[in-house]
Every structure is written in C-alpha cells, then in structure tokens.
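Before relying on records like the one below, remember that each one covers exactly one chain. Contacts with other chains, cofactors or solvent are not represented anywhere in the record.
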Amino acid sequence: MNIASLSIDQITSGLRERSFSARELAEQALAFAQAENPATNAYLHFCPERALAAAEAVDSAIAQGQDPGPLAGVPMAVKDVILVKGVKNTCASKLLANYIAPYDATAVARLEQAGAVIIGKANCDEFAMGSSNENSAFGAVRNPVDLERVPGGSSGGSAAVVAQGTAVASLGSDTGGSIRQPASFCGVVGVTPTYGRVSRYGLTAFASSLDHIGPFARSVRDAARVLEAIAGRDKADSTSAFAPVDDYLAAMDGNVRGMKVGLPKEYFTHLDSESGDLIHRGVEALAKLGCEVREISLPHTDYAISTYYIICTAEASSNLARYDGVRYTSRSADPESLTDMYRSTRGDGFGAECKRRIMLGTYVLSAGYYDAYYIKAQRVRALISRDFSNAFQAVDAIVAPVSPFAAFKLGEKLDDPMQMYLSDIFTITGSLAGIPCMSVPCGRTAQGLPVGMQILTNHFQETTMFRLADAFERIGGPAAVI
C-alpha cells in the first residue's frame, strides 16, 4: 500500500475486497506521517490509540457484513482548532499548549460515523490568524512542494499533509481564504462550503460570522465525499442551515456544456503574470468543454480587504477575550492585581499577529468608532454580497484566481503585514458573502510552484461547483492548461 497515492474509492474498495485491513492501513499511515513530519512540521499531535480504535471498528463492521461507511478506513488529519475529544487542541498557541478537548466537534463526529480514521491534528497559524502558517507558536509549516516556501495559511498544515501524502484528506477552517489559499499553494483541492452548510460546533471561534469548516483532498471527488459526510443541519449550532445536502458525486458526469461561467474583471488586476496566464488557460479549457464564458463585474471588490479586517478583528477581539487566565489558559504566577494577571497572561501568551488583530478589533468596537468603522463595514459587506447575487442572475459559476501569486518564501512577508494580507485579496469576498468556493489545481509556474483556480457558486450550490471542478479535473486539470 502507498498511502500517498490512494484515493477514497481505492481504500473503500480495497477494504471490501479484503486486500488490506483498516488497522493495517492506519498503522502504515501513522508510521509514514510520523517519519515524514520532521520535514514539514505539518502535524502538531498524533492520536494513535484513537486511530487504531476507529480502524478496528471499521474492520469489525466489515467482518459482520455491515456497511462501514463512505469514508471507511480513510486516514485523515484535522486542523488543531477543531476539537477531537481526548486530544490536545492548542490552536497553535502557547495559551492552550496543554488544553485537552472535552468533546468532539460535530464535523469530527460525523467523519468517524462515516468510517474515517483520524491520525492527528494539523499545525496552523495561531488561532487561525495568518496567511502563511508562520504564526504558529510551535514552528512554521513548510510547503512539501518546496521546503523553503510557505504552505499558505491559516490551514497550512491541513493542506501540507494531503500534499505530502501523509493523509488522504483533512479538515481545515476558512475565515477569509484559509482553505483555498493553502490548497492553491500546495497543489491540492480545498473547499470552503456555504456558511452554515457545515456545523461550527467544536470549532474554536476566530470570527463567528465568517468561520467555516471544509475539506482538503487530492481530487475533487474525494473532497466532495468528505463534505457530503460532514454537511447538514446540527441542532448544536444555531447557524447551521436546514438546507438538504445533495448527492454531490451523482452530479459529476463531466458534462458542463452550456454552463455560464463569469470572469470578474476586478480579479485580474494586480495579478502575477504567470499565475494569470495559468488561470486564463484554465478558463480556455472550460470553454472547450462547452462553457459559455463572459466577463462580469463585482464592483465593490476594492473594499473587501478593509471591510474584512474590520469585521474579522472585531469578532476576534470579542471571541479571544475568554483567554484571560481565569476561564481558559494557565495563569502567570503571583500576579499583583487582576489587571496584572490579564496583562501578563495575554501579553506572554498571544503571538504578534493575534495581538495586532485583537488591538485593531478592540479599537473599531470602541465608543465613538463603532459606527464609523464596524457598522460601515457591515454595510459594505452587504454590498459585496449583493454584487454576487446580481452576478449569479447572469452566470452559474464564477472563475477567478485564488491568490495574486504562488507560494512565497518563508520569512519573505513577515515584516510587512499589508503584503501578507493582500495574499487573500481574491478569497475574502467569497467569505464575506458566505458563498461556496473552492480551489482546484490549475498548473504550475516555471519554478514548479502550484497555482489554484477558484470556483465560486451561489449559496448552497456546491453541486454546481463540484460539477465544474470535476469536469476540469477529468480533462487533465493542470495538464489541460499547458
């Protein structure tokens, strides 16, 4: 068995045919991941006992002639902001270095109900704040494609384990592009579903109105399988949607003839020429499949960065207030006063990026500035969402870049936060609108660096998104644009 080349279909069929057992697969996956991890630092923790117990449950179900589930035996990783009961959930922060999750996130419970085997927790930017995975308190993640480059963030570890082949699929979280951008940088598929499609119960909150859980995989088909397993209404999360979950795989027939695809003109400015060329060639490949390509406009795109960094930091300031040495985290020894305890606990515990966002968020929520910044940003967010609503009256899907550039070198943008933030300029708008978006590999630069093509569809139209991405992948995906 070669974990790095197995698909979900190959694993489930191999188990049914008794070519191997789920336990054998889990043992091999754990050994391989532990051996390869020093090169990338993509995993923060492994959970062998839980993985082997889940694998044995799959083997037992098969032996008894029962259906082991659509993800039976599939080795997976989970971003370390998503709770896995009995396993550390550090959020890549010193503040939670010893925090053990007391319950499973709904998405994790549904993975295991579908037969998945969780082998470990993936590294990320601290509290999911970052675009390069260099903000982890436990060391940066390195891109498996080029170990001198970043994997993207904040779900860099979740993307890296799939690209490295140490997990068949993984879960990440996305607030402003934290699934799609790492997927693009690492050359894998990453899916951000409609807001509310997947329960956020058990996801450590960063910005509650923007946070999503979604899958990484090596193929569109595998990503769709994982999303189908974790999606759906959850009474534990009042923001989860009642919308029914479609059979995504049934819609993947390769036929997209007549589908209307929009190219937003605002997304093709300030774009690295090599990345832009690959996206345009990808669009040409879609046109050859029979798609009708037309230019569209999303006029409020230029306001997205400022809008996002007001809303997300405001919500982060509120959500991270609980890490104060009383409710969560260890407390500094013998503080002289309550204020001293707060200052020392949070000052020593949070990294620079978290502090930056907390301070900005506190400022925009403060008296005298709430109306000028936060309320105004929410109004612009509504305009951005309306842009997409208007566009989807004319097109079925939107195709755009994921990032202005391919993966950059470690340390290259750390001293320039604005340049770091601009790496998410093309993903933030979809997050603000709450629509489903994904990154599908679209070729490589002359240096061999992956570039992702972003596909966006209307709310709860993941089926259309997967159908288009699968059709592109069927004709060779990256090979089709050469």
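Residues 370-391 form the longest helix (22 residues).
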